[in-house]
Amino acid sequence: MSLPLPVDFAPMEAETAREIPSGAEWQYEPKWDGFRCLAFRDAGEVHLMSKAGQPLARYFPEIEAALLALPAKKFVVDGELIITQERHLDFDALLQRIHPAESRIQKLAKETPATLLVFDLLVDERGKDLTGLVLEERRNRLELFAEEFFTVPDRIRLSPRTRDFETAKRWFKRMAGPLDGVIAKRTDRPYGSGERNSMLKIKNLRTADCVVGGFRYGSKNRLVGSLLLGLYDQQGSLNHVGFTSGLAAADKTALTKQLESLIEPPGFTGSKPGGPSRWSTERSTEWEPLAPKLVAEVQYDHFTGHRFRHGTKLLRWRPEKRPEDCTIKQVRRESESPLTLLD
Question: Among this protein's residues, is 185 annotated catalytic?
Fold first, then answer.
């Protein structure tokens, strides 16, 4: 490629913040629940690169084709790959793309096509490097670029932005759950490749009351290492939905004794830990079942594919809460689809 940026160019990254910052120097964008992606095009050659520098083009052939179909023959853009189903973001559908079989990828590309939401222009259609320009200028050029070249709202779309603090707060509140959060960027700074000093991410964190249906011992001793969490479905089955760890060392001895006194099969009456999944490890089948007596309130960021996507944070015990009231409904609250921002 004859572009001024190499394909292993590191994207700008974000620091985590608890609150959305305010001030004239900030721009706000939706934090999409997808794969970060830098897209490079030089004539008939296209590269899609992940945030970690891994090539993505073979997993998203429909995006490669869409980029090649754009009238602009040379550019580098920064964006997010998403897949939508019934007006909702589907992160699990993205994960299914990372598959070794090309036939499977081609099938999914037709059934659940991805979209690239573009939020920054790093190299323009003339091959000029724009990373030294401040964001305000880059965004203006991106909007002109999108107006000229994103002529059909299809697989390549312009991601929205606002300079209004109140609008950003409404996004955050109105779309809690489906939207990953809000990104705040300094408009007065250039593109900081690999740096975290010009961008903040404010994530939507929610809480849920879960039944502790089992636990695992730590890898080095016979003290509790993690709690296995469950939620009841409409049929009354307790399904394993994730775990929480990071337990205070001072509490582990007493907690282990309490948990051992409650050991009683089956623990989970629906889906159980250790079933086949992309999250399974060699220790997934090693766990102790508990009678459904304990309820814990945990903090989480995403619930997808019938489980918490990441480990959760234990906030407190809920002795006053009835275990049977800990249902799947609490993690499936309705909120407005973030895709309305693209309408």
Answer: no
